[in-house]
Every structure is written in structure tokens, then in C-alpha cells.
Amino acid sequence: MAATAAPRDKIFQFAPTPVLVRDVLGREAFNQTLCELILAARERVPGHQPSNRGDWQSPPNFLETLPADVQNSLAELVTGCIRDVLALLGVQPQGYKYRISGWANVTEQSSFNVPHSHHNSVWSAIYYLAGDKDAGGELHVMDPRPQVTVIKNAISPGGSELVYKPEPSSIIVFPAWLAHFVTPYSGQTPRINVAFNVA
After folding, report:
1. Rounded to an integer, what distance in angstroms lies between the CA atom of residue 108 and that of residue 71?
2. What CATH architecture applies to the domain 20-90+98-198?
3. pTM for the predicted model, two decimal places
């Protein structure tokens, strides 16, 4: 009697969503200088409130106001992270000219961000410079599938949130279309970061 071939199962990870978190080492002096530039800007520039509540957010062209060497360092940090993610996905956009905008955030106690996404961009990034650890203010990245939580039980495939606890000198990079929000911050010292949109 001929042996029966075993059935072949295939499971596809359909439309996976890459998110990169990276510790940025050896940039303490750079981070301190950038924090000083941001706090000085807060003293002279009115804040914006597109999604933030209670904190100070610079105008969206803040990156362009920084010294050229600081701009270049931040741009290389962000684009380097994106290139690494793309390489893992098998994408190598040779010669592509990235378009980057960046703005600063200074978060005080009880400040938070409501759910939002970033339009007219492909990638978003947040580079954390300073702030207390384990003091709330977590970044919640939401599942982008609108129907995934219609029925939520023990056998549901997905429907959770990615929760990141910010640490100084770390960066998170994610697709700009992912909705996200920030819970209230309870730290004693301001949390300072620079956020980016990349297209």
C-alpha cells in the first residue's frame, strides 16, 4: 500500500508591520546640546497643539532651525534606522532622497497625546532625549486593522497594542499611518524628544 503524503500547511504573515526600537549609544553630549536648544526654543516660540495636551510642541519646521551639523546628525540617525528596517524587508532604495521634517516636544506632568497618525509621510520616528523612567507617558501604537477587535477572546489573532516605555537616548521608528497615542506623564523632570516624518 502506497504511503500517503503528509499535507503541507502554509501560514503566511500577511501584511506584517515593522517597528524598530534602538538604543542610541555614545551621544550624551549631543543629546544635552539638543535639549538645551529645545528648551531655549520653548522660551521664545509659542507652542502648537495638534494632538498633544498640556505640553509644548514646536512648529513643524523645528529641524530646519537647528545648526547644520545637528540637522545632519539627526537626519542620518533617522534615515539610518529606516535603511536598516528596509534592508530586513529586502528593500534597498539606492540613491533615494529622503524628505525629513522634525519637531520638538517638551512633556510636563499630566501631559499626554490623543490618538492620531501622521499624514503625507511614509515613516515616523521619535528620538527620546531626556525624561524620567517608569513615569508613565508610554507610547501606544495601535493595531491598524479596524475590525480586529470586533470579537476579542482567547483565540483572536491580534488586536493588541504595542506599548513602548520611552528611555533617554532611544529611538522608535514605525510606519506613519499607524495610529498612536501617549498616556499621561508623571515624571518630575520634563520628557524631551524630537519627532520626525519621513517621505
Report:
1. 25
2. Sandwich (2.60)
3. 0.92
The C-alpha cell at 145 is: 486593522
| b (16+ CB within 10 A) / e for 157-190 | eeeeebebebebbbbbbbbbebebbbebbebeeb
Contact 42, 56 (CB under 8 A): yes
Alpha carbon 99 to its chain centroid, in Å, reads 16
Alpha carbon distance 119, 179 (integer Å): 10
> pLDDT (tens digit, 9 = 90+) per residue, 176-196?
999 999 999 999 999 999 999
Residue ranges covered by each domain of the chain: 20-90+98-198
3-state secondary structure 100-145: EEEEEEEECCCCEEEEECCCCCCEEEEEEEECCCCCECCEEECCCC
Closest CA to 136 of 113, 105, 115: 113
Order of strands, sheet of 100-107, starting from the edge strand that comes earlier in the sequence:
20-23, 170-175, 123-130, 191-198, 100-107, 56-57
H helix or E strand, kind and range, residue 182: strand 180-182
Query: Distance between alpha carbon 139 and the CA centroid of its chain, in Å?
Result: 8
The CA-based angle 68-73-76, given to 5 degrees, is 120
